[in-house]
Description:
single chain; 262 residues; alpha/beta; Deoxyhypusine Synthase; 4-stranded parallel β-sheet; 14 helices; 12% strand; globular
Amino acid sequence: MAVSNEIKKAKEHILKKSEEPESSITIKGYDFNSKFDFDSFLKSYKNTGFQATNLARAVEIIKKMRKDKAHIFLGFSSNIVSSGLRETIRYLAEHKLVDVIVTTAGGIEEDFIKCLGDFKLGSFSASGAELRDKGINRIGNIFAPNSRYVKFEKFMIQFLEKHKTETMIPSKLIKMLGEEINNKESIYYWCAKNSIPVFCPAIMDGSLGDMIYFFKSSNPQFKIEITEDAWNLNNETLGKNKTGIIILGGGVVKHAICNANL
């Protein structure tokens, strides 16, 4: 009898009477039997659950940013530019859909590198030692041959030689590089053309930083001054009725944007 009562209690505990959730949204995916409509398909994400719902919420938030004429900050890490999402970022800059960009050194240099030579699809499981012997760098499952970096180094050295007596701020350097590359496939070509400021708080963290280091070894008068950019980035938020933040990736990019919007 005692065992039977314990089982009954366990059953009641497991099958506890439920309350109805407060949400009025029923989980339901897109009906592909109907005529396909892309807008309806995207809207169905909201009811799909998991990360699809978060994507739909993000779309709604961005629509509100644009409706409210918010000053939009876009931040992204370098892997966005390594991949085919670079073209999405370029589209946003080309059509003035964001007001400020903040990224990493890789997010700058790889845009220019791709103007000089393409990246190739590889494999996540490729041997690092074998790729090293072939002079190929791996970014996830994307291959970037050393020859691309050699072309970028030549481009950078020619640029730096023209400005070796100047004191640069990173945003000015990026704008001038965008003008110098003069390539409509470049994110920063369009940023320069459309006066979208680009901030890179960690400009020395990448191949670009290595090139600046070696250049400065023989040109000690060349300087990069970062405090003015910190001042400029923070000032981007002043006097704005509303700001919007889109951040792809974390770290220094997220911190810089969030700090400016405090």
